[in-house]
User: Which sequence fits this backbone?
């Protein structure tokens, strides 16, 4: 599709690691708890946004990159990071997408929805019908914040479980995953080309 993709390892600070088998990670609560306890200590809002500056600078320095405004995409916890980056770097982010993102509108002072007034990007959010990390009232709170701030956005609910996009998880939903690719490419094509 003509896009240069940078896929950072959000957990690089945790040192060398081997990710657990995705089937166990998404089906065995003990495995999931142990994994996320270790990995959560490697990333937080401040570190993620500091890293985002380095990623944006790296992309801007690539000779073949045709723009200085970029698209960002996040899944699960990085869905909130994508929206936060759009609010913290409004002159550098043209498009932001979050798929089955969690904790998008909480009472935490770093909640992504609080940055809505600063967002200049076009935003797409795809939430899951079965997702404890983003229940309907959270989705509504996010939608209200984006609307009140005048952000050009779309929020859609997918009839799927949290984690539908990756093909190697038990939650994978082929139809929802295909729909996510369609919406992402449409967002990028309309803002970055």
Assistant:
């Amino acid at each position: 599709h003509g896009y240069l993709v940078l896929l950072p390892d959000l957990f690089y600070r945790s040192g060398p690691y081997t990710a657990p088998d995705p089937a166990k990670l998404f089906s065995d609560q003990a495995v999931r708890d142990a994994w996320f306890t270790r990995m959560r200590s490697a990333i937080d809002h401040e570190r993620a946004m500091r890293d985002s500056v380095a990623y944006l600078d790296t992309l801007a320095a690539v000779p073949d990159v045709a723009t200085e405004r970029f698209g960002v995409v996040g899944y699960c916890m990085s869905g909130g990071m994508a929206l936060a980056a759009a609010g913290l770097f409004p002159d550098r982010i043209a498009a932001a997408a979050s798929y089955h993102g969690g904790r998008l509108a909480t009472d935490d002072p770093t909640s992504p929805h609080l940055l809505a007034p600063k967002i200049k990007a076009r935003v797409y959010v795809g939430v899951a019908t079965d997702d404890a990390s983003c229940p309907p009232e959270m989705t509504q709170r996010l939608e209200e914040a984006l609307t009140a701030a005048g952000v050009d956005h779309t929020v859609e609910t997918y009839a799927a479980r949290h984690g539908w996009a990756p093909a190697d998880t038990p939650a994978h939903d082929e139809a929802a995953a295909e729909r996510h690719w369609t919406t992402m490419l449409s967002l990028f094509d309309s803002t970055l080309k």
